[in-house]
Design brief:
heterotrimer, A mainly alpha, B alpha/beta, C alpha/beta, A: mainly alpha, MetI-like fold, 13 helices, about 75% helix, elongated, disordered N terminus, C: alpha/beta, Rossmann fold, eight-stranded mixed β-sheet, four-stranded antiparallel β-sheet, about 30% helix, globular
Chain lengths: ~290, ~300, ~325
Amino acid sequence: MTVAATNTPKSQSELGIILKGVCKDPLGLMGLIIVGTIVISALLATWIVPYDPIAMNIKDRMQGPSFAHLLGTDQLGRDTFSRVIMGGRVALKVALPAIFGAMAIGLTLGMIAGYGPKWLDNLLMLFFDTIRSFPTVMFALAVVALVGPSLQTVVIVVMATSIPTYGRVARTQTLTLRNSEFILAERSMGAKMSRILGVHMLPNIIGVLAVLAAMDIPGVIALEAGLSFLGLGVKPPTPSWGALLKDGYALIRQTPWLVIAGGLPIILATLGFTFLGESLRDVVDPKLRKNR
Amino acid sequence: MTAILEVKGLQTNYGDVNVLAGVDFTVQPGETYAMVGESGSGKTTVIRAIAGLAPAQAGSVKFDGKEIRGIGEAAMRPLRKDIAMMFQDPTGSLSPRLTIRNLITEPYKIQGMKDRDLDAEAKRLLEMVNLPSHFADRYPYQLSGGQARRVGVARALALEPKLILADEPTAGLDVSVQGELLNLLNALRERLGLSMVIITHNLNVVRHVADRMGILYLGRLVEEGTTEDIFKSPRHPYTNCLLSANPEPDPDARLERIALTGEPPSLLNRPSGCEFRERCPMASDICTNTPIWETAKGHGIRCLTPL
Amino acid sequence: MSDALLEIDNLCVDYETARGDLKALRDITFNINKGEIVGIVGESGCGKSTLISAILRLIAPNTRFRNGEIRFKGEDLLTASEEKIRSLRGSDISIVFQDPMQTHNPVISIGNQMVDIQHRSKAPKAEKRAYAAKMLAAVGIPDPDARLNQYPHEFSGGMRQRIAIAMALMSEPDLLIADEPTTALDATLEVQIIERLKNLQKDFGCSILFISHHLGVIAELCDRVVVMYAGAVVESGTVREVFHNPKHPYTKRLIECDPGHIKERARVLPTIPGEVPDLANLPSGCIFRDRCLQAMDRCTSVPPLTDITESQRAACWLNHMEAAE
């Protein structure tokens, strides 16, 4: 409504508005808190953990929660709480670079496909479809079997298989925007393709992709956990949520704590990122924002 | 004196659809030319084809004596500062994530004029279109239609172009604001010696801004002349219908009009002969022959049974 | 008045927003008699759309009815049950929207859509289809039987709007609400639609509430007109009264601004400088005061909508001065 719009107070920074909007939404705030906790604990993991997460202490094996060991210990007497915190760092080390890498590459290729000449679009779409026809998990298993399990392998596999998702969304968005009047206006002033894509398309597309990314992160965390569960992710002494689950699964009759300690963070991270993503989706669009 | 814009036989096809079937018109320096037509007449395509934003398969477009049809974007770029465009949607033609300051100084950045003080230019331009300078920090969605339209005018005038191509400059504006915009355009045109092509379906607007006008029907001009002549004595029956289909805000002025029946035919299925004959109250047998373009006293019409 | 079909009394509607209550409609009072065409004219932000959604009770969740009544055939629509309202919509009250390109379902043929909306009738399908064809003919669609099989995209904008009118009239409503039905159309088609509406009104005898920002169209079609500004009625009366002898400065200025009014080429066109006030932060006094050339001290208090003649009413202190003199 124009009446309201003309009297809006002076613009704040884009990020400030987005954060404020997320905080106003209860689910968004919850997501923000969960994600914030995971990220901060991962960053400060070295200082937070009460014990060395890989130090064994056979005497104290398979204990339940106590003040000394908040989440008990595993079959080798390692402190589970310390392993959960360090496991979060591993999870983010896989998820964040993989998703942001895929987003950056997908965005660039998608915008070029959507705005560039038809033949380039066809070529890029063929490339996307080819990659998409690889099932992520099978592809990951095959690559791991070939080059051996490691963090980097997981990152690269996830990145490669996620590129088409972002590429396609970026392309669709670009196609809908390319004939809009503001893009025509830029063309009429003689703007080059790089400027049109970078200055005018990007800010209108990035929001959608950021939301998609936030919602994809839990999937990658789960994938990493799954691969580690199968023994194909990170190598054994390194703590990981999936490895915790795997150990706990084997020992579920003796102690349930390991499964809980490995499963709960995965559930929480999934919920947290999803809430944040959904809340972001509503907030990033300035046109939706003005109606609030 | 060379015409600022000379369009001859301009043709545009989208696939099989022949949108422009040869459009000819000239704009002299300092002149405002209005192209009037209903939706589907191809009027938007005309200015987009001139600016190289729509295809033009045949014909000639001369800007300041130089041919610019199909010269390619690289050759066109330096000319872009002399030809500015205004688009129909006041808000939709502004990049939504940019502040007004960035929007109106965009032309300087695109043309690589790095030596300009952009803040000062933004201030000058806002002042020129009578907007307060604190609007520089706002975003397009925070503006009313009229304000957004002014920003569009400011941006179009930033580089002091020689020619402005304006698509429905009053579309989406309230009546009380429409006048403001036309006054602004008229004043700026005089001050800066601009030439303008205005595309519109609103005849009320044409009367107050245009020196000459052309009536477009199915991608072809059917009548052309000075605004005064055409309003006083339209000669093509279609023009006459358009003029009488303009309801006045007076209940006693009801029903003094020539009924125009039906709707424009499909471009895929152009009628033979005169393309208006199926809707024309004056049509007779001879109209199935191709009508000629007849010029008398600078007032051209494409009709065999003129009024 | 006994022949009133729709009576709106002191209607106040707010929107609850983050910036406080947006007072979208304030003390709206007017009525529509049986068989009458009433026009509502006003510029963006005047509350036209809120008014329509209030009448049909198709409201956003943050809408609050603060005061007033909307009576349809004597029954208050604001307190009526949801079922009652649903049974009125599309049968006793129909609506034609602004954008003809978006009112029809693109994947269902026009014929099926026109049969579907007769879901309240028990008649056999063939009969419903015949009625649909009859209605298409009534709005001037040539060859209606064949065209029933076509899909919306096969019709032009003007035809689609006529089909929308045909569909709205199928239930033989008592009230047809037309929300800017000609705004998206060219002038030549606009005239055709208006002529058609006029004739249909005579045939069907329904009342029409015609909303437009186009003064010429209102003057052409309507019996009476209500002028709205920033969520309030500033003037109402017969079209002749309001267009020939406006009693509110806003109406006067609006008519002056209409370029259809100015026959000679004008160097400077009249305008109404200033902006519509912020409805979430309402200024005191007369709503038009900031933009009014004749504003005076007395305008710091809100002028009531008072009778000027038997049929004309305006909300301006100037009329009280004239009366006093």
